[in-house]
Amino acid sequence: MKTALKIAAGLGAISALSGLASTAYAQNTASATATGSATIVQSISVTASSNLGFGTIVKPTTGASTISVSSTGNSRSITGGGNAVGANGAGVSSASFLVQGEGGSAISVTVPTTFNMTSGTDSLVVTTTSTTTAGNLSGSIGAQGSFTVGVGGSFPLATNTASGAYSGNLVVTAQYN
C-alpha cells in the first residue's frame, strides 16, 4: 500500500510538473482584407491629319539659308546668310496629329527632335518643333476625347545641297500618363 501511495504521489508530482511545462499559445493566425480595382480605358490612337511640307525652294547661289515651317500654321520662313528663295507657297504646311482615347485622360506625346528627309542618297536633317508634348484629352471618362499636336521644323540649305524631291517619315507617338 505504501508502494501504491508512493507511485500515486510520484504520478501526481509528474502531472503537476508537466502542467507547468506546457506551452501557452497566443493567437496563431491573422487576416486582413484588400480590395481589387481596375479602370478600363479606350485604346489610344494617333492619326496624321496633315503632313509637314516645306514647299519648293530655290537653293542659294551664295551662303547658307535655314528653311523653317511653323508648328502652328502654314507659314514658311527663310533666314540666314544665303539667298535661297521660296518658289511659291504651295505645299507649305505644318504637320498635325490627332490623338484620340479616353476622355479626360492625361497623355504625353513624343515628337522626335530630328528626322531625315532623303532624295536618293542625299539627306536633309530636319529639326522639329511642336506645339506641345503633354495635355489632357477633351471630354470625360466614358467618352472618346481628342488632342491635337502641331509639328513644324527647319533644315539648313547650302549652295552644295543636291537638287531633288526630299521626303522622310516623321513618327509621333502618344501614351497615357
Report on the biggest sheet: 7 strands, antiparallel
> What's the alpha carbon Rg, rounded to whole Å?
38 Å
Low-confidence spans: none
Domain module count = 1
The portion of residues forming beta strands comes to 35-45%
Could you say which overall geometry the principal axes of the C-alpha atoms support? elongated
Helix content: 10-25%
Written account of the structure:
- The chain has one domain.
- Strand 10 and strand 11 form a beta hairpin.
- The radius of gyration is 38 Å and the shape is elongated.
- Helices cover 11% and strands 42% of the residues.
- The chain has one helix and 14 strands.
- Strands 1, 4, 5, 8, 10, 11 and 13 form a seven-stranded antiparallel sheet that branches. The chain has a three-stranded antiparallel sheet with strand order 12-9-14, with no helix packed on it.
- It is mainly β.
Q: TL;DR?
A:
This protein has 177 residues and is mainly β.
Produce the secondary structure layout.
Blueprint: H1 2-21, E1 45-50, E2 53-54, E3 57-58, E4 64-69, E5 76-80, E6 85-86, E7 92-93, E8 95-102, E9 106-110, E10 114-119, E11 122-130, E12 134-136, E13 144-158, E14 173-176
Antiparallel strand pairs: 1-8, 2-7, 3-6, 4-5, 4-13, 8-13, 9-12, 9-14, 10-11, 11-13
